[in-house]
Amino acid sequence: QQQQQQQQQQQQISEQNSMMPSLHAAEQQYSAVDARQQIPAPQFHAALLGGADLVMQPPRPPRQSSIPPRKCAPNESKMDLDSLQLVDGQKQKQKQKKKQLHTRKCQPRRHWSQSPAVPRCRRLAIRLSEGWSLPCVVCSYGFCMLAPVVWEPPQVAGMTSRGSGGSSSTTVQQCGTLRRPLRLLGEQVVHAAVRQHGQRLIVEFSGRAAALRRANDCPEERAHMCRQLRRMLRLEHEDDMVVAKFHSMHRRAKREGFGRLFRNPSLWEDIVKTVLLCNCGWNRTLTMARKLCKLVGTEGDCPSAKELAAAPLAVLRKAGLGYRAARLQRLAACVVASGVQPRLLCDAKESLVALQAISASAEGASSAMKEASAHGLRGPPLFMYVAARVLPGFGEFAARNLLQLCGVYSMVAVDSETSRHLQARRGLPPSELVNPAAVRDAADRVYRRYG
């Protein structure tokens, strides 16, 4: 038995020795396949020794890399070369990011109006009363020409139509567009474009994304914008009652659609522009308003009381205000010290309360009370005139002008233009208009019947 076992072992060794050349040849032939297919070496040898067929698959294509190939240095192996290529690729991405950031910083910042995608909030619609007309309201007073208000008048386009009897021409009139900035409760600015479509007033807002987002999301801000529009365009119920009473006495006014006096969205802006009207010509008033909004106001809007109080006198004088610069700063200091909120300044029904709060610390109320009583004022008009008269830098013309902007028409604000108007339209001789007091008395006689 031992001899038989030894013979069997010798036969197996001889068979293995006879098969070694073929094994070495197969290893050389399929070495690449073994590396690509990642077949473990024991399985490879077992397949050959067991006589199983080795399944040959086509080689996978090499992976394409976006990194350009790099030549290998003499002292670098292939693995080191791959790791260096990966580091080079990361460095290239970092360089590209730095280049993009540098180009962004070097580009000049665009103004919000030049941005290709300016965010807009949804339209605001206000129902109008019968007979209300946007061109008639805006063009009723010269404040429509003072910055930051921009009035684009209606366009009248001629159209020709041919019928059986020949050709006839007709005109189609389009309502104009009123553009101006409006302030939010947080002193942010949005720009409004106001148009009339039938018995509805359509307002579109544009501006910075943060301001528009606040105007969209906050109901108080939208109510505040409506409050400003209603004050500026005389859309309150009290305004309708005053206009109806005036139209009953003046048929031409009803026919032509005038009777609502255009004003600003806030009482503070009415005060500022009333000061700009005093003791100068109309062209200088236009220039002062334009420069004041450009140099001091936010985004071209009329400066708020805080902005005007903080502005240096040199900047205000650069706007051509002259002696008015110090007066406006005193008025702004009174508004800031009173603590009057923007909501109150833009509420047309609370003009008396706002005026009394601003003028609470002013002096001269007793003399203003006597002056108002002499003109026959009683009740709220009397208190409103006294509050306006004691404001810093406000004379009789400025107080009367502010009263009519607040809806009190008992006293007419007269100036040199009033004298020319009375001569041209009412036929009064120049001998009755020799001085401001005579012009004031003549205007009171002419317009007293309208209340």
Summarize the structure.
This protein has 451 residues and is α+β, with helices and mostly antiparallel strands. Helix content is 52%, strand content 10%. A hairpin with a 5-residue loop joins β5 and β6 (189-197).
Strand content: 5-15%
The proportion of residues forming helix, as a percent range, comes to 40-55%
Radius of gyration: 43 Å
Oligomer: single chain
Q: Specify the biggest β-sheet.
A: 5 strands, antiparallel
Total count of strands:
7
Q: Would you tell me the structural class of the helices and strands? A: alpha+beta
**Could you give the distance between the termini?**
146 Å
Rounded average pLDDT: 80
Note the overall shape. Answer: elongated
> Tally the helices: what do you get?
21
Q: Can you walk through the features of this model?
A:
The chain has helices spanning 2-29, 31-37, 41-49, 78-106, 134-138, 209-217, 219-232, 237-249, 251-256, 267-277, 282-295, 305-310, 313-318, 324-338, 342-345, 351-358, 365-374, 380-389, 396-405, 416-425, 436-447; strands at residues 124-127, 150-152, 156-163, 166-173, 177-183, 189-197, 200-207. It is an alpha+beta fold and 451 residues long. A 5-stranded antiparallel beta sheet has the order 1-7-6-5-2. Strands 3-4 form a two-stranded antiparallel sheet. The chain is elongated.
